[in-house]
Structure formats: structure tokens, C-alpha cells
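Researcher: Please predict.
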Amino acid sequence: MIKEFKEFALKGNMIELAIGVIIGGAFGKVVTSIVNDIVMPPIGLLLGRVNFSDLFISLNGTHYENLAKAKEASAPTLNYGLFINNALDFLIVAAVIFIAVKQLNRLRKRQENQPAPKKQTKDCPECLSEIPEKAVRCKYCTAKQEVPMSDRRPELTN
């Protein structure tokens, strides 16, 4: 069982997945910081000095100056400002993932459209082994091969 677990854990896909999750977590933190620290403050300034993280509705009917004071009083709140920040986080992450997947699909499609490389081998008619296209004799059964005049080496034409 330990051997099977080792094989499972050390497979290339598993390690790549772990790396992806770690990078994704770090990317999420960066996006959250961009939204909270760079995008939302100018939007809040344009909308009359609004701090989106302080936008909330107190569900118990009491008015509180800010979200911190409402939480301090253990008041139930509907934090729509934080929801706006998180929705913007999601939209940015979704847009980046969409662009990345679109680029990967474009690269994959480009690779699929490339013609397959020309086969440089042929099958020996005697033993059916795969041998180089310009071979004069089969390396497996030593049968003489038919080689077109254009492909013959000058030293073998005598």
C-alpha cells in the first residue's frame, strides 16, 4: 500500500497539480490585493469617498458607524461591500484564466495543424523490420533493398 501511495503521489500529474494549486493560491492573493488596494480606492473616491469594505446593512435595525463597530457589537450584517470586492476578484481571476486557456487552445490548435514529419524509414519486404529509407541492405536480415537511383550513394553504384 505504501508503494502504491508513493507511485500515486510522485506521478508527474500529481506534482503539477500541487504546483498549480500553490501558484493559484498566490495568484488569488495578488488579485485580492490589486482589487482591494489599487482598483477599489479610486472607484470609491469617484463615488464620493466610499470605502467598499465598509458598506454593509445592519440586520438588527441599529445604525453603526462602520463594519468594525458592528462586528464588535456582534450585530448581524449584510456585507455587500465585501461582496462587491470578492465579485471583482472573481471577475479578474476568471478573465485571466479565460485568456490563458484561450492562448493554450490556440497553441494546441497550431500544433495539431502542423503536418506530421516525413517518415524516414521503410519496411524490409523480407523480414518486415523498420529500416532507414536509404538503406541498401536490411540491418536485421541483410536482404538487399531496392533503392531509387536518386537516393543511392555514389560509392555503391558500381
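Model: The two ends are 66 Å apart (CA to CA).
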